[in-house]
Amino acid sequence: MTLAELRWAGRSPQLPISIELEDAAGPASLTLEKLLRVLPGQRYVGVAEWRGRKVLAKLLVGGKAARAFQRELHGARLLAGQGLPTPRLLADGLREGEGGWLLFEYFDNAQGLGDVWRVIEHQALLSDDQQALLGEALGLVARMHSQGLWQADLHLDNLLRHDSQLHVIDGGGVCCETPGEPLSRTKVLENLGVFFGQLPASLDAFIEELLVHYLLVNGAHALPLEALLKEIGKVRRWRLRDYLRKIGRDCSLFSARRGASVLRVVRREDESRLAPLLADLDTAISAGQPLKLGGTSTVALVEQAGRPLVVKRYNIKGFAHWLKRFWRPTRAWHSWAEGNRLDFLGIATPRPLALLELRTLWLRRRAYLITEYATGEDIIARFRPCLDAPGESSSPSEADLQALDQLFAALLRERISHGDLKGSNLLWDEGLQDGRWVLIDLDSMQQHHSTRRFAKAYARDRARFLRNWPADSGLFKLLDERLPQVPGTCPE
Q1: Which of 315, 367, 441, 467 could form a disulfide with 330 if both were Cys (CB 3.0 to 4.6 A apart)?
Q2: Backbone phi, then psi, for 285, in 5-degree steps?
Q3: Are residues 123 and 86 in the same domain?
């Protein structure tokens, strides 16, 4: 295969692929054995064999190949030129009209810090493991900044640990202000905003403590916390908007098909497993365990390849109901969007896996949503012993209450209202070390831009939540005292 042919290979070309390339020693065959990242028609990154050794190959094709190649090459040379730890560039080349290639040394048994973080991210906030990882990352970022470099797309997956040494990868995002001289404070704040903006917002209280790791390596500038938090907020808002734009289109995360008769969006990693279920959802619902049999929606627990899933069908009750619904986004789409929003923000909810809308000449009809299944009892059942056995000893456990504090703090921070915060929509998940509360039934959820509207919506949520228990009970009074209030919405 040639680079020109690789451009049309699609997202999942059949491996191995042999491509004739050349370097200073002459032509040789590159055998691509495993793909790590694919941008169809533009970029193929994978593990390959070249002149008898294993390499990391970046193959750039398509109309933008020449520009992408120069950017990658420039970034790799900048990192190496400033003595920063980065995989060695072994060979590179560009063929006019076909594409370019960069071959790097490959590190066996290397760990991306993003993968390490995903293992420890649910530990207690700023645990020893988290502090060690983030401190190590910030130390390398500080080294880059002290040499006048920064990585525009700075995140943990671009930092690779091999033999106890941290390396910077992905030279395509590396930029330079003045080589060898410390980066300006403005650029430092912007780049640290990108770094912290991709970490959970719950860590914001520890940013000042984490900055010590950075300043020990690069103390060229004072870094005002308020200015840094402003940059972090900008990055988080941009990342959320960018992510929500992807949930309805074909990309590396989602497989999407739009047409006059159907809209189908599936998480790409689950596409093959969910295909049999998506082919006949009504039969699966009929055969599954009913969870809700309502007029406007039907919910069933189904099993797919040994995995419990929840399928929710949004029904059309009749012609009059259809006239109200066909012209606007379906409730399935709204729940799909809000579920992905919560998942992105790190607020616990069953992960949305697939959306299916049936249409007639683009006019919406019935719709379906598939999510993971959340086990665990709801908050009314979990707190029932506190009502049945009054007394101080009958209060909910501190772990339960702290998890509730964290959930409401996250809703306040993100200005999110649930819209129907009855007890059956809040489930206890013991999957984590200390447990957490999981939100379900997101049909009425909303993220507010207006502070005033959010305050009113949050007040309704808070009041609805407290109505799960008698107003004269000790549990009601405990929760009323504990739950945060928005000023001006609740009596003191």
Answers
A1: 367
A2: -65, -45
A3: no
Do both 99 and 132 map to the same domain?
no
Name the nearest CA neighbour of 314 among 250, 263, 378: 263
What per-residue string of b and e applies to 151-164 under the rule 16 or more CB within 10 Å gives b? Answer: beebbbebbbbbee
Confidence of residue 345 (pLDDT cuts 50, 70, 90): very high
- Number of folded domains that form the chain: 4
Cis peptide before 16 (omega within 30 of 0): yes
Query: In sequence order, what are the beta bridge partners of 102?
Result: 58, 92
Comparing CA positions, the residue from 423, 436, 417, 439 lying closest to residue 350 is 439
Rounded-to-integer distance, Cα 298 and Cα 222, Å: 57
Cα–Cα distance, 248 to 263 (Å, whole number) = 9
Q: From CA 436, how far away is CA 442, in angstroms rounded?
A: 17
Domain ends where: 246, 262, 292?
A: 246
The answer to whether residues 352 and 316 belong to one domain is yes
Task: Quickly tell me which residue has 């690789």 as its tokens.
Answer: 6
Q: Residue 491: pLDDT band by 50, 70, 90 thresholds? A: very low
Q: What is the average per-residue pLDDT within 70-91?
A: 95
Same-domain status, 221 and 297? no
Tokens in use for 408?
């409401």
The owner of tokens 């009913």 is 290
Which structural domain, as residue segments, surrounds residue 94?
3-105
Given the structure tokens 């009958």, which residue do they identify? Answer: 394
Q: What is the DSSP string of 157-217?
A: GGEEEETTEEEE--GGGEEESSTTSPPPHHHHHHHHHHHHHTS-GGGGGGHHHHHHHHHTT
pLDDT of residue 486: 77
Q: Which of 86, 105, 124 is the last residue of a domain?
A: 105
CA distance 205 to 125: 10
CATH number of residue 198's parent domain: 1.10.510.10
pLDDT at 492: 42
CA atoms of 140 and 218, how far apart (whole Å): 10
Express each pLDDT in 225-268 by its tens digit: 999 999 999 999 999 999 999 999 999 899 999 998 899 999 99
Q: Which residue has the tokens 């039969």?
A: 283
Residues with Cβ < 8 Å from 402, sequence gap 6 or more?
Answer: 434
What CATH number should be reported for the domain holding residue 56? Answer: 3.30.200.20
